[in-house]
Amino acid sequence: QEGHWFKSQCGPKVGLIAGTRPGFVRPRYGYTFIDYFLKYALFLCNLLFTVVGLMVLGVGMWGLVSKESFAQEKIGSIGSDPMLIIVGMGLLLTLLCLSGCVGAIRENCTLLRLFSAAVLVLITLQVLATIVAYSLQDQIGGYLQSGMITAMVRYQDDLDLRFIMDEIQTNLQCCGADNYRDWEINLYYNCSAPGVLACGVPATCCVDPLENGTVWNSQCGVGAQMLDEFSAQSLIFLGGCLGGISRWIELHMGLIGTIAIALLGIQIMTLFITTRLLDSIYCVLTVAWHLLPMPSPSIPGMSSPNLNGEKKEFIGRFFQKRQTS
To answer: What's residue 183's pLDDT?
Structure first.
C-alpha cells in the first residue's frame, strides 16, 4: 500500500528505491535516465552562460581600465560611465548562471529555487519590456533622435558617446541624425567656431577617411557643411543615421525576432528543467524519509519544523552519498 502511494506520487523512482530493505537507502538509483540527462543538460547550459557572463564582465572591466576610469581625477564621475552597465550585466549573468550550475551538479535545492525564481523574474521583465516597447513604438524614434543629438553635442567631451557615434556612422555609412548638416549643433563643428574643425564633420562621416588605404585622415571632413549635396556626396555620407538605423532594423527584423524567441525559449526551457529537477530531488528525498524506521514529517523536506537532530543528520548523509557516488 505504501509503495503504491509513492509510485502514484513519484513514478518509477520509488519502485527503484522501495525494493531495498527498510532502513537502507541506495540513493544513486533514485533517478531515471531522463532526470540525469536534464540535470547535466542544466549544468552544461549554465556553465556555458557563466563563461559568457565572465567574458562580458571582462570586456566591461577592460573598458573601464582602458579609459582610466579608476584614476583619481575620474573616479568621482565613474557612476555615469556606460561601461558600468556592461559590468553589471556580466556580473548578474555570471552569478545567476553560476548558482544554476552549482545547484544542478550539487543538487542544492536552495540554489535551484533561487535560480528558478531569478529566471522567472527575467522572463517576466522581458515580456513587460516587449509590451512597453510595442505600445511606445511611435515614440521610440523621438527618444532615439534626442539621444543622438545629445551624443553629437557632447561628441568631443564624452569618449563613450564619441565611440558610439563613430561606430554608428562607420557601420551604417551615415552622417548626423537627419543629414550631415546636423553637426552644426556641435560647438567645435559649428560654422562660427574659431578652430580648424569649423563647418566640418567627423572623419567617420567620410566616404574614404584613409589616404592610400593605410593612413587615417582625421580632417577629411573639414568644411563639408559648406558644400552642397552634389559636391559633398563624393566626400562624405549624406544620409542621416536615424534613417540608417530604421533601415537596418527593417532589414534584420527576422533575425532579431528569431534570436529574441530563441533566448526566451531557452529561459523557459531552463525554468522547466529546474522545476523538474527540484521535483525529482524532493521525490527521492520523500522516499528516503518513508523508508526510515521513524515517523515521516508532515511536510517532506529539509525545511520541515518537525525535523529532529537524527533526521537532519540522515539528510546530510543522504546527499553526501549522492554527491560521492
So the answer is: 93
